[in-house]
Amino acid sequence: MTDTIRYDRGADGIVTLTLDDPDQSANTMNRAYAASMSAVLDRLEAERDELTGVVVTSAKSTFFAGGDLPEMARATRADAPALAELLGTIKRDLRRLETLGRPVVAAVNGSALGGGLEIALACHHRVALDVPDSRLGLPEVTLGLLPGAGGVTRTVRMLGLAGALTTVLLTGRRMRPIDAQAAGLVDEVVATPAELLARARAWIAANPHPTQPWDRPDYRMPGGTPSSRSLAAQLPAFPATLRKQLKGARLPAPEAILATAVEGAQVDLETAFTVETRHLIGLLTGQVAKNMIGAFFFDLKAVNGGATRPSGVDVAPVRRVAVLGAGMMGAGIAYACASAGLDVVVKDVSPEAAGRARAHAERLLARKVRKGRATEADARAVLDRITTSDRVDALAGCDAVIEAVFEDPALKRSVFAEVLPVLAPGALLASNTSTLPITGLAEGVDRPADFIGMHFFSPVDRMPLLEIVVGGRTGDAALARAFDLGRRIGKTPIVVNDGRGFFTSRVIGRFIDEAVGMVAEGVPAASVEQAALQAGYPTGPLALADEVSLTLIQRIRRQFEAAGEGVLPLPAHRLVDELVDAYDRPGRGAGRGFYGYADGTRGRLWSGLADLTTDAGRAVPFTDLQERMLFAEALDALRCLDEGVLRTETDANIGSILGIGFPAWTGGVIRYIRQYGAGPAGFAARATELAARYGDRFTPPADLVDRLAASATRPAEAVSAA
Ligand code: NAI
After folding, report:
1. pLDDT by residue (tens digit) across 525-563?
2. What is the domain range of residue 547?
3. How high is the mean pLDDT of the chain?
4. For atom 28 of ligand 1, which residue has the closest CA?
5. Which end of the chain is more exposed for a tag (fewer CB within 10 A), N or C?
6. Is there a single domain that holds both residue 234 and residue 382?
């Protein structure tokens, strides 16, 4: 098996272990690592008398990436014994390292996430190099897993139950080195690689006989163990807090992490390791981890790696961006571009209106500086890249324009006509419209091949998704440039074809329609909200509808109707019309919608809702409430695939999770179909049942099962399985 760890003993008796898997660009906890580490420990133990200490570092730009996700994604119940053995070996050797009787220091030269941090935690001392993109943490929970190479057990013993759970394990936070130091995961942070090794050696010299805190006779777990009186009283609050954080959703990984931490805190170290392994294997052989690894590892890598960017199209990168409209979206887009080092010129109808883009950037930058995420000089440099104006000639020489004026096709056409003459020749022409077909907007310009949709999400600085919309006449070069620009500003770009509402706005519309429809039928509004939250949606649909504004929802529906793009009359539409037109409850902006708002804070659901429904107090099984929302979106996503609006399942999965809040545990809207029941057949059977009870919109496409079965293995996962 490949040797993944180099062993170098210096004249001073210090052994440097260099993690360097020759077969991969990053080190992972695969079988080769396990075998290499066992061999290393045999040798360290054999040479112990001649050693003064050990430094663990890496030859990669990152320290160590984490678990072997392709292998984990394939795990079945039959693999459980082999996995238990592998985890046992990995843990045994890390334990041998920390009990070697010689000082062991981790010289963390780059990101140490998951397994990487677990190796570092088995060292007596951790020094981290402060490189800009280095991140440390245990993000397993975000993949439906738990840190099973001692990560739960050791963080609980280092930080105490409450500290480990809230700062590290349940959040999965990826911390910068200085934040990891503040959290107690790292002892020292240094600025240069030379200092990194020098500090590691200095620590070894000063601490010839260290032991881990938990191996000392006077060790006490910070905050106490579950059997100590102080902690016992707080313990019942742990699951309650978790439930509140998850808004009632039942997710296996956080629950397993909580159980592992609490159970492990009551037993000796070895038993705690066993508890950890068993809970991890439970997760690994379950469906949710597979869904999440599929989406957040395979799909995300494929999307960000450019799977849908036209290949072999070499285009000039964008350098100077014109943003039209300094509203919520324009200001956000300008900030994102300037933060990525691009020059930006923002134009609005008056200097004051345009100036809001700068004010927005100033606010965000001040917060960054306050939190230590940027220096004053960085902030100034970003601001200096943003120019604002009400004059068209200020846009001279821009090689891309992103339009974000009001959602009005005539206005959009006129602003493009106005700016085209001053832009650089061949400039990329992009619209941030959220619903208007791109092909139609492109009719207003003389170079439709350069026209494309770049649909950002609000708030732009925090939402990672970019939906690139290819119009009927958009060329490959424009697509490639828009894709590269999206990547440059740190977004995850999915690529879809044109259609009203494209993919995201259209499918989220089905979610809101279904939810509002249930209220119209007489299901208590609070039950609808709860059903969505417990299904794993980040926001209840009625709160979301208020946020979007019912007036906008109404307007979008009317645009669909006006365009003759058949919208079935649904009970939801009647309810929205009544709320807006008869009761003047247009949404959050007005302080009244499904909810009431006081000083911008959401209050209670409006008590008058029940009077507007056909069958007040109607009882629909809770699972049906949840699945009506999930299925409404999934079935419409399938239609998007059929109609060619969606080009790939991968984009559907990533777009649904990152853009419109489809529950992350599903691994995305199409994967939800694949994993439901016994696969697509189970989904189709359940959809048929929902159709019989609630309406034809749930009738599944006749060839659904065959179609999904025909492409059963997802490309990215198939490649790594080979
Ligand atoms: P907004 O109302 O906050 O901003 C629109 C801005 O355009 C205003 O500052 C207005 O003064 C400016 N404007 C109007 N006429 C102009 C002209 N002739 N030249 C230059 N500027 C002009 O609107 P928001 O929310 O920023 O939306 C803008 C676009 O982004 C719309 O097409 C919308 O559908 C789309 N969008 C909105 C999202 C959201 O969550 N609000 C999400 C994604 C896309």
Report:
1. 999 999 999 999 999 999 999 999 999 999 888 888 888
2. 504-621
3. 94
4. 404
5. C
6. no
